[in-house]
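Hi R.,

Quick one: here's the Twin transmembrane helix small protein sequence you asked about.
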Amino acid sequence: MIKIILIAVFLMIIASLGSALYHLVKYKEGASSTKTVRALTFRIGLSVLLFVVVCILLATGIIKPHGIGSRMHSQGASIPGALK
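And here's the predicted structure, written out as tokens:
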């Protein structure tokens, strides 16, 4: 459920970026700059919110990292030459 919400917010960020691009290209006059700035401001706000929420979810253990980096980090003491 949490992953679906995070993906939905990410898609909203992409849609906002597309909206800003549309207003920037379609309308060349001054009225479009207000819409472009509003869309980009909304995108920045969503990006910051997404970053903070992901950090909180990682810190509380609700979501756990997986992949190459997490395996290397958990085995750091057993790798010869690894920094301690």
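The chain has one domain: 2-74.

Cheers,
M.
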